[in-house]
User: Which sequence fits this backbone?
């Protein structure tokens, strides 16, 4: 036996370095952007046909690819752009940026023999629809106005929230169960003119993605769906303007470099003007909207980028001099992208979001306003451990202020007394980790866990009820009725009225049968701590957001 080991030892000593050398892997990473504007592109496919593998760019245009040492042909493809084929030698870690040119050729016939997009068949992510702005603008629309929300209604499982109502429903969920993000900031009301148009200007939008199921663990707070929308970053190559004049509204967008290839800006506005013609028909009513999209981007160096984006929109609806309704969203986001290494990408965001609702009734003599504000800090990291294993992890913290309503007299002759309904306050915290892994050539899995923690903060005054039950059941009328409070308490802001903690596991599996077919399944658990109180008998979107608390449990 010892003699046999002595004979094998030279072979092992020679083979081991060769084995280790053959397993040496290198990483290339970089940003993929548009050639004409330097705008980063989301979801670009980088495929390696020889290994039947590949990756896609993240929400900020970044990719990372780790392969064994060798020379490989990369196929880079994105809808609406010319495919790019590049041969790369994996002999060292490299940073390579690619730029794609728009597809300008019109061909009579196209025969597809290879499809890099088939990479999505083997991915565990399911129930996700991605729409490009070009696709949205090609969809037939009412009155010539391209609309993101109306385009979503054509997707399976998505339906209208109802006539004269804002928002949309996904697979039977309510409108308030959809998390709507614009550059990571929450939009609490997504519609203009009571649901006829959305608040999103298509000219300023870069990417739209709707998660209807298998929601990754980096998202939380809504139990039905996630609509993620990113604005364009602004052209850093040349100044451009575009716009349009429509039947209902007109729009104008300008973008250009502040410092060429280093800093750029984008500003876009949109407004309706049909109300200007109403006086011609002796109609003393008003109904119009306007919004403003802005963004600044600054490339500090190869590893750091700064972005400042904002949105402001308002709807105005008035009937003669008796009634006026004003409502809308305001958001602001300061974002820092940092590259720790060619395998570790991070994004830090400081976000402010606000929804305002105002109502004035001159014939009664008062003004009413309500709304919700939040301040959000979130930090996300993505670690590309290998071409078959990635980890996403991070945290976010949100502070909410809820204004259920304030009423004030609108003139000296008003008989209304000023009154502020008690404001509510809350904190929501979450940490998450998400794994994306290919277990074999046929089986891929995405699994993760989100831990959410909600704290209902103290307020100026809160009622106390017998047995902590604010409603009682009437056995004769068979209805629930409001219970009479037994007293009130006055907790301090730092006090906790209620706390909720939930574990939210997520898992998605994909089994590839052949290059054209796969089977997918997923399980998602989500908690929602905010609730929308709607006045369904009112023609205006009189919606008041309220947090979970001692008497209102979270939705699961």
Assistant:
């Amino acid at each position: 036996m010892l003699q046999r080991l002595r004979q094998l030892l030279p072979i092992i000593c020679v083979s081991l370095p060769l084995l280790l050398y053959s397993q040496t892997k290198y990483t290339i990473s970089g940003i993929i952007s548009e050639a004409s504007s330097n705008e980063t592109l989301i979801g670009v496919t980088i495929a390696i046909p020889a290994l039947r593998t590949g990756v896609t760019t993240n929400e900020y245009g970044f990719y990372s690819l780790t392969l064994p040492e060798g020379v490989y042909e990369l196929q880079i493809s994105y809808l609406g752009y010319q495919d790019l084929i590049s041969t790369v030698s994996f002999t060292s870690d490299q940073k390579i940026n690619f730029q794609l040119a728009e597809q300008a050729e019109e061909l009579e016939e196209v025969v597809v023999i290879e499809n890099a997009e088939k990479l999505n068949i083997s991915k565990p992510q399911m129930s996700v629809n991605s729409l490009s702005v070009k696709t949205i603008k090609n969809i037939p629309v009412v009155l010539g106005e391209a609309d993101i929300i109306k385009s979503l209604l054509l997707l399976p499982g998505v339906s209208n929230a109802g006539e004269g109502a804002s928002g949309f429903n996904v697979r039977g969920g309510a409108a308030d169960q959809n998390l709507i993000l614009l550059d990571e900031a929450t939009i609490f009301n997504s519609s203009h003119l009571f649901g006829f148009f959305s608040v999103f200007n298509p000219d300023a939008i870069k990417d739209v993605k709707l998660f209807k199921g298998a929601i990754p663990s980096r998202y939380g707070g809504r139990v039905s769906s996630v609509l993620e929308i990113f604005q364009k970053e602004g052209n850093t190559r040349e100044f451009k303007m575009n716009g349009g004049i429509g039947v209902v509204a007109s729009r104008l967008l300008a973008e250009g470099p502040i410092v060429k290839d280093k800093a750029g800006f984008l500003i876009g506005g949109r407004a309706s003007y049909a109300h200007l013609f109403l006086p011609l028909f002796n109609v003393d009513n008003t109904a119009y909207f306007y919004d403003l999209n802005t963004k600044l981007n600054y490339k500090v160096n190869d590893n750091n980028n700064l972005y400042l984006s904002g949105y402001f929109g308002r709807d105005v609806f008035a009937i003669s001099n008796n009634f006026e309704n004003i409502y809308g969203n305001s958001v602001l986001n300061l974002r820092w992208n940092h590259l720790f290494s060619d395998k570790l990408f991070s994004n830090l965001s400081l976000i402010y979001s606000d929804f305002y609702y105002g109502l004035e009734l001159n014939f009664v003599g008062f003004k009413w306003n309500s709304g919700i504000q939040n301040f959000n800090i979130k930090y996300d990291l993505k670690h590309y451990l290998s071409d078959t294993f990635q980890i996403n992890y991070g945290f976010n913290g949100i502070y909410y202020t809820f204004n259920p309503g304030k009423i004030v007299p609108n003139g000296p002759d008003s008989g209304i007394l000023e009154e502020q309904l008690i404001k509510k306050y809350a904190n929501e915290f979450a940490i998450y980790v998400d794994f994306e892994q290919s277990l074999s050539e046929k089986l891929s899995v995405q699994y993760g866990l989100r831990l959410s923690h909600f704290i209902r903060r103290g307020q100026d005054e809160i009622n106390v009820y017998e047995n902590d039950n604010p409603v009682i059941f009437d056995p004769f009328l068979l209805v629930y009725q409001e219970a009479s409070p037994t007293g009130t308490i006055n907790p301090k802001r730092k006090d906790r009225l209620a706390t909720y903690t939930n574990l939210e596991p997520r898992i998605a599996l994909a089994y590839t049968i052949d290059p054209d077919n796969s089977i997918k399944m997923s399980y998602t658990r989500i908690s929602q701590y905010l609730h929308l109180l709607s006045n369904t008998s009112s023609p205006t979107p009189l919606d008041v957001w309220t947090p979970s608390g001692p008497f209102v449990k979270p939705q699961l």
